[in-house]
Each structure stands twice: as structure tokens, then as C-alpha cells.
């Protein structure tokens, strides 16, 4: 768990990104989790990734670290095309998974920020956008990719979606540990509660929105055991 947390973005990295406020929360369910998020900057290009490896434990944690390293390497080679980026990452991860003789794979999506444009690629949980005026948009990523590591070539399935992102708009990324968290009556926190929690704090900073959502989530869970890793990333256009 310590090694996993070591590779997460540091606060000073997030604070150095012009035009964006970014706040993130990760809580592994066990000693080692399979959730992934990262914020990679190379010049004016910023790439934010979020993913969830099947299961958790050591194998999932190792795969998460592999994804982090491959994504960093690709970003450093100035691979600016989202389609190529995800295709090459998948090829590398698939070959590594073959070596490990495991049946692991992961949902994985990336947001590319450059010159005021945001491009979404890859298959993961739905993306939530809360507009400065309070309107809420839900973006389905099902048709933007395939789980990474499942097939040697996912290139035909990769697509992109452009998100309009103006001043005061907020993007919320999460793993299913958020929406599938249960209360004592086994009711899920769900996407609608996530929307309500984010909308309620519209106008606050990314950090305030993140803290508020986590408070609502923990109040919902109560004294229940947390069964899945929880990851939440808030991006606010300043």
C-alpha cells in the first residue's frame, strides 16, 4: 500500500497546473488496491487517467503500477493522440499480463486537456460534469474503448468524446467503489447521490467539493466494512 501511494501525484504537482484545480481521494479497501488515477503533465499537455483493476490484492496493485509506468512513459514521448496512447498502453499491458498468467484486466479512461479543450477516451465509469450554472451532464464511456489487457488489440474499439469545459465547470471522475458503496440496508450510494452531492457544492473549490462528496459517502457507509477501493478525482476549471 505504501509503494502504491508513493506513485500518486503530489499536491505541489497538482497546484502547478494552470487553469485547473484538481483534488483527489483514494482509499484502498485492503492493504493493496487495484484503483488507478494519475495526473501527467508534459509542457502544455495534461493527461488525467482513472482506472480500476479487476479485484484487489497484490496482483491488482502490481498491474496498477504497470499502468502508471507505461502511461508516464508514453506521455514523456509526446504521444499526443488519445487513440494511439490507449492502443500502445494496452499492447504493453496485455503482454505483461500474459507473462503473469493471471486473468486480470482493467477499465481505464483518460482526459486530455490542452488549449481549453478536453478529450475523453477509454472505457470506465460514467463521467459527471457539473456546469457553472448547476446543470449536470452524465457521459457514458462504454463506446469509447474496451477493458485494457483483455485483448491484444483494442484499437478498433477506441473512440474519443470532446467535452466543453468552461470557467467554473467541474468534472468528477470516480471508480465503482464510490457508487457501489453500501449502507447498512445494502442500498448503494449510486450515481444519483453522487450527482446531488457534487451539485450541492457547486461554486466551491475542487478541494471543498471532494471533501463534501467524501463526507456524504462515509455518512452513507456508516459503520459498514468498505468492500472496494474508493477513488474520486475532482477537476475544476478556474
Topology:
Layout: H1 2-6, H2 11-15, E1 20-27, E2 35-42, E3 45-53, H3 58-76, H4 82-100, E4 106-114, E5 117-121, E6 127-130, E7 136-139, E8 160-163, E9 170-174, H5 176-179, H6 190-200, H7 206-221, E10 230-237
Antiparallel strand pairs: 1-10, 2-3, 3-4, 4-5, 5-8, 6-7, 6-9, 9-10
Helix pairs in contact: 3-4
Structure in words:
It is a single chain. Helix content is 33%, strand content 27%. The chain has 238 residues and is of the alpha+beta class. The mean pLDDT is 94. Helix 3 (58-76) packs antiparallel against helix 4. The strands form 2 sheets. Strands 1-10-9-6-7 form a 5-stranded antiparallel β-sheet. A 5-stranded antiparallel β-sheet has the order 2-3-4-5-8, with helices on one face. The chain is globular. It has 7 helices and 10 strands. It starts with a helix and ends with a strand.
